[in-house]
Design goal:
The structure is a single chain. This protein has 247 residues and is mainly α. The chain has 2 domains: 48 residues, no CATH class; 193 residues, no CATH class. Helices cover 74% and strands 7% of the residues. The protein is built from 9 helices and 3 strands; from the N terminus they run E-E-H-E-H-H-H-H-H-H-H-H. Strand 1 and strand 2 form a beta hairpin. It starts with a strand and ends with a helix.
C-alpha cells in the first residue's frame, strides 16, 4: 500500500489467488480507516497484479471440489445402493476376490474423476509442458484414488443409500473447506495439513497458475500418494470387516 498526498492510497493486490484477493479487497478501506485513526472513507486506487484469466485462478479450486464431490458423495451413494439392493452380494458369488471387487469399484470411481477433470482442462484450453502435464496427471490420479476410497468407506458402513448421502454431505464440508481456506488462518492451515484435498489444491494451483515443475510439487505428489495407499488399505480392511460379519 502506497500513501499518496492527502487521503489517497494506491493498493497493490495479488489477484492470482481468489481465496485471499476477495477478502482483502473487501476490508481494505476499513483497515486504512483504522490505520488513520478516524472514521473516513479513504480513496483507494486498486491495482491488481497477476490477475490473468479468471478461469486460470479458479480452475484448481473447481478441480479439487469436483474430485471430492464425485469420489466422496457420488460413489458412496452408488456403492451403498448396490449393497442395499443385493447387487454386491451377487458380485461376491463370482470367483472374484474381495481385493479385485474393490479394485474394480475404485478404478471406476477414479476414472470418472479423471474423465471430468480432463474435460474441464480441455474446455479451459489449458496448455502445460510435458513435465507439468505429468505432475498434474499424477496429482489427479492419487487424489482420485484417495477420495474414491473415502467414498467406498462411507458406502460400506452406511446402512442405506440415503444414509450414505447424508454422511457424505457431512464429511464433504470439513474435507474441502480447510483445504481451500488454508491461506486465511493458521488454524485452517493446521487442519488442512491432514487432508488430501489440501495437497491436491495446492499442487494444482502451483502447476496451473505458475507452471511449476515436477520437482516443485514433488512433496504434494508424495503426500497424495501416501494418502491414496493408506486410504486404500483402510477401505480393504473395512470391506473385509463388513462382509466378514455377515458370513
Amino acid at each position: 500500500i502506497v500513501a499518496e498526498p492527502g487521503e489517497m492510497f494506491t493498493a497493490y493486490l495479488d489477484g492470482s489467488n481468489p481465496m485471499t484477493y476477495f477478502p482483502l479487497k473487501d476490508v481494505l478501506e476499513t483497515v486504512l480507516s483504522a490505520y488513520m485513526g478516524r472514521r473516513v472513507e479513504p480513496v483507494v486506487d486498486l491495482v491488481v497484479l497477476n490477475q490473468g484469466k479468471a478461469s486460470a485462478s479458479l480452475l484448481p479450486l473447481w478441480l479439487t471440489i469436483t474430485a471430492v464431490m464425485i469420489g466422496v458423495m457420488v460413489l458412496s451413494g452408488s456403492f451403498a445402493e448396490e449393497k442395499e439392493k443385493g447387487t454386491l452380494d451377487n458380485i461376491r458369488i463370482s470367483p472374484a476376490t474381495d481385493g479385485e471387487i474393490l479394485l474394480g469399484k475404485g478404478i471406476s470411481g477414479a476414472l470418472l474423476v479423471l474423465l471430468v477433470s480432463f474435460i474441464m482442462l480441455l474446455l479451459n484450453k489449458v496448455k502445460l509442458s510435458s513435465e507439468g502435464a505429468a505432475a498434474a496427471a499424477l496429482m489427479l490420479i492419487f487424489g482420485a484414488v484417495s477420495f474414491t476410497a473415502i467414498g467406498l468407506i462411507i458406502g460400506l458402513y452406511a446402512r442405506s443409500q440415503s444414509a450414505a448421502r447424508a454422511i457424505s454431505t457431512i464429511v464433504y464440508f470439513p474435507l474441502i473447506f480447510p483445504a481451500l481456506a488454508a491461506d486465511l488462518s493458521q488454524i485452517a492451515r493446521r487442519a488442512a495439513g491432514v487432508l488430501p484435498s489440501f495437497y491436491l489444491y495446492r499442487g494444482l494451483r502451483e502447476i496451473l497458475q505458475y507452471q511449476a515443475a515436477l520437482e516443485a510439487v514433488s512433496k504434494d505428489i508424495l503426500s497424495l500418494a501416501g494418502f491414496a495407499l493408506l486410504l486404500s488399505l483402510v477401505t480393504l480392511a473395512a470391506y473385509r470387516n463388513t462382509f466378514g460379519r455377515e458370513r
